[in-house]
Amino acid sequence: MPEQPIDRHLSRRERQIMDVLFQMEEATAAEVQERLPEAPSYSAVRAMLRILEDKGHVRHHEDGPRYVYRPVVARDTAQKTAISHMLRTFFDGSVEAAMTALLDATDRRLSRDEVDRLSSLIEERRREGR
Q1: Cβ atoms of 72 and 18 closer than 8 Å
Q2: Domain residue spans in the chain?
Q3: Which CATH number fits the domain 8-93, given the four candidates 1.10.1060.10, 1.20.120.530, 1.10.10.10, 3.40.50.720?
């Protein structure tokens, strides 16, 4: 999928719609509505999809009388963009500060496997000089 600048500001409901589209890869307004918690009306979902399209997050193609929507960027690209924005906004670009906040924010302890995987990733980045 081609990457282009997008308006990052999404409401809670817009994020839920994007989650559905990322999971399904493409969907009609009715399919999105079926998968939303406490789903709004069909016309409200269509309106939000139109807003997401105006913001540059989704595009559509016509399949007979239906519009089929899909995300403009891949989920991993959207995740990286969101994380970069969060780092700049809340942590002055500090990965260490963000990781500390993530580790402190949860009530559950990391499993031994999770700690080992994170340690391996850190060591790999260290070897790469990143």
Answers
A1: no
A2: 8-93, 94-130
A3: 1.10.10.10
Q: What is the pLDDT of residues 74-120, one digit of tens each?
A: 888 888 888 888 899 999 999 999 988 988 887 788 899 999 999 99
Which pLDDT value is given to residue 6? 52
